[in-house]
């Protein structure tokens, strides 16, 4: 049995679904292969930032709104708290959202807010959207086996039961997670270390008695019975994480009774009914694929990069991967863009993954500032696990080594017991811990990285100026139209009412955005740019008669003066910007747009339009033409 689609995607997790939906939005048919028959039951990834919500809104605003509707109310996402136990002392906290003027500034930066929704809740929403999209066929219960490139595309073999099924497509996207079979089939290595091994339990319990107002999004707990994080998943659902030592342990060693003991240890009370829902184990790594492309095969999401959860970047980085790749694949498949455009996917996205990985690792080890005061270090468990798996400890019977684990954990947690004691010495210890908790802001507030990443190379016209950032570029986001950056959000008006500048973007089209009242002055320049681009270029102006401050807002946020304009790619990232419809600047942009054209596009021939094609050119050093 053979099936033929334009793109085959392996993996119907959040990133694979997002890629399929974005391709469908651009008119591209996909076969989506998923080994599971049902959405995941374990929460897994859960931090969804505003940039990801913008991406889902570009597919369907109702999808983005459904995600927010299924999420906890915003007031339950306001802080991270450190405790000796839920029934014990509160050691310190971090606000995830600032107050006052800082909060107002954040609310101006996007039409959508960040939220917290476990993958077990997100996936059903995405699968429902998939099922309502005619251009996508979801094949459940199929296991990917192999991919072979042909002269015109890729042949993919999957298996359902004992029956092989063949799929044919022009391209293949591997969105099949951290242990990607697609990546392994391409023999693409992952570069980076293993940092820790973690066991987790998803459970239901009414813990409201321990929170006078509302539970925090995440609780870090340190005592002699338990050390680790507890994540609140709304409606009395929780995830607890504990160290795991695969050299001598398996998931089966974490029995229901063992998990109850750990959960009671985190709570500080056994007088709580606990209903276990699911459990699992996973390896925390910081690894990036050596390359994102092998011929007609591309990697996205965890198949391309794996981060520690310290920062919540994983799923969100994957959503950005899907957005970046989808419009380029659609452009190539439609004949509007040249095939080398696809090389810029790695050029643009791999540096974003590298930055997010670096910040995640920094956050992971920066927690040592807190735990050093009672003798714990982030790398201790991983080092111990490695020692248990190597001579001479590996020569010991498994039971003996498991005993070493239990004694080692007890010894490691012993120092945390002092945090709960009432004494002058413990008061001083808690004071030092609280001071270093305050240093963890980048771990839990990273809007500068989430919204502020920019493509320095690729399909951009780079400028000889540094990208504007606020502070270190991690916590605070500074809107900018620096080429490669995300188009700043601003509210503007049209016949349908108030919309975001992001709502002006259309699938498979560039946007030339001008300031209030300047669209007519740019109409000739827009026509000239359009003559050199096979993708349509839409002309729009920032307009809202009800906002008297719109002109000053345009000049301050969009950085091109009253007479300037910003040329934006279909994915909402700036291609170039202009201070005025200057002939030389427009010609330079035309020159760069011509590089994106396919050589054999007979319906769009630069030569026929009297344009000379240079022999070897580069757009932003990321797209070379020979």
Explain what the structure shows.
- The chain is of the alpha+beta class and 626 residues long.
- The strands form eight sheets. Strands 6-5-15-16-17-14-18 form a seven-stranded mixed sheet, with helices on both faces.
- A hairpin with a 2-residue loop joins strand 23 and strand 24.
- Helix 2 crosses helix 3, helix 3 (61-70) packs antiparallel against helix 5 and helix 8 packs antiparallel against helix 9 (344-366).
- The relative contact order is 0.12.
Proportion of strand residues: 15-25%
CATH class of the largest domain: Alpha Beta
General form: globular
Largest sheet: 7 strands, mixed
Question: Would you report the number of β strands?
Answer: 30
Quickly describe the structure.
The protein has 626 residues and is an alpha+beta fold.
Properties at a glance:
single chain; FAD/NAD(P)-binding domain; D-Amino Acid Oxidase, Chain A, domain 2; Glutaredoxin; 3 domains; six-stranded mixed beta sheet; globular; disordered C terminus
Layout of SSEs?
Layout: E1 2-4, E2 7-10, H1 14-25, E3 30-33, E4 47-48, H2 50-59, H3 61-70, E5 79-83, E6 90-95, H4 100-107, E7 115-116, H5 119-131, E8 136-139, E9 143-149, E10 154-160, E11 163-169, E12 171-174, H6 181-185, E13 190-191, E14 194-204, E15 218-222, E16 227-232, E17 237-243, H7 256-267, E18 275-285, E19 287-289, E20 293-294, E21 297-299, E22 305-306, H8 314-333, H9 344-366, H10 368-371, H11 380-388, H12 398-414, H13 424-437, H14 441-444, H15 447-452, E23 491-494, E24 497-500, E25 510-514, H16 523-530, E26 537-541, H17 550-558, E27 565-568, E28 574-578, H18 583-594, E29 617-619, E30 623-625
Parallel strand pairs: 1-11, 2-3, 2-12, 3-8, 5-15, 12-21, 25-26
Antiparallel strand pairs: 4-7, 5-6, 9-10, 10-11, 13-19, 14-17, 14-18, 15-16, 16-17, 19-22, 20-21, 23-24, 25-27, 27-28, 29-30
Helix pairs in contact: 1-5, 1-8, 2-3, 3-5, 8-9, 16-18
